[in-house]
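Training component of the fellowship. As part of building independent skills, the fellow (R.M.) carried out the full modelling exercise for a liganded target. The chosen ligand was zinc ion. The inputs are recorded below so that the supervisory panel can assess the work.
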Amino acid sequence: MQIAKHRVVSIEYTLTDDEGTVLDTSRGREPLVYLHGVGQMIPGLETALTDKAAGDALEVRVAPADAYGERDDGLVQKASRDQLKGVDEIEVGMQFQAQGPQGRQIVTVVAVEGDEITLDANHPLAGVPLNFAVEVVGVRAATAQELQHGHIHGPHGHDH
Ligand code: ZN
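Fellow's submitted model of the complex:
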């Protein structure tokens, strides 16, 4: 069975940046399972996986525009220390979950100068070309109930 819209796809993957640093991998964990064609996967990878089948391996380089987007300097903002209540020590590199206009987003501390904190709400992988080594582990049709819910059930999926 080939990968197409509304198929449930299992993949093993390793994600590296252009320097070869591993950013994420499914190795040593369970394969990633997702519903194809509904926007759960980054667009560039989803396009590359379309029509592939179990056993296929591929290497894909995804440009930022087809992954987490380009960096937006407008998302870098200053805050004062008392706007970050409940955080005792603020250090460069710290990340917070914040509620943004598009849901949860990760905010990274990029500078600390006295009472002034500079926060970057760009996705940590914005502007970064992504290199995926992917192996398709399984492809099956989604059930009517999975399509209705918009997520998969069973092993590695929703359990309810
Ligand atoms: Zn469900």
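The panel noted the following from the submitted structure. Residues 90 and 122 are 18 Å apart (CA to CA). Residues 7-68+126-149 form a domain with the Chitinase A; domain 3 fold (CATH 3.10.50.40).
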